[in-house]
Amino acid sequence: MSYQAANPLSEEFSLELSGPLAGYWLAFLRVVTGWWFFHAGVTKLIEDGLSYSYGPMYLQGMEGTALGPLPVWMGNNLGWLIEAMVPLGETLIGLGLLFGVLVRLASVFGAFFMTLFWVGNASFGHGLVNGDLMGLLLFGTMIVFATGRYYGLDAIIERTKFVKNRPRLRYLLG
């Protein structure tokens, strides 16, 4: 948006992606989403350590969802891995987003988590749009806009010789 001749009292400002307002907003979304996941993971680590037993129990109860027998199989056969990976994964995803490090990679894993949560909570009592879908959309935003480049350490990492010599690494950053 820019200055509107019809409203001479409005102040001119820009919502362009290259403008400071957009950068601040994307950084804010990244930090808030990072805190959300970091807090969820650290809380589980403090309470249960790497033995988060609710994860496998949750998957075992998903037999009537859109994912079918896959989560039940995972809950029965991969419980030992899920117990450790849920709190550890949430914590690491949160830290990556909080500090703006490997944001795209962290967001891919965050989107994976949120997809499982969204489909796994498939009661959809209020329709398809729920908090899990909103989390998935936040992670999609982090991926698309490479939010680690806005006031995050990814902006610094991208300028290193190591990354400049390996341009494909830029896809993990952001």
From TrEMBL:
Membrane topology: Multi-pass membrane protein
A Pfam family per the record: DoxX
Annotated transmembrane regions: 21-38, 58-80, 92-113, 133-152
Keyword Magnesium: no
Name used for this protein in its record: DoxX family membrane protein
Places the protein is found: Cell membrane
Keywords: Cell membrane, Membrane, Transmembrane, Transmembrane helix
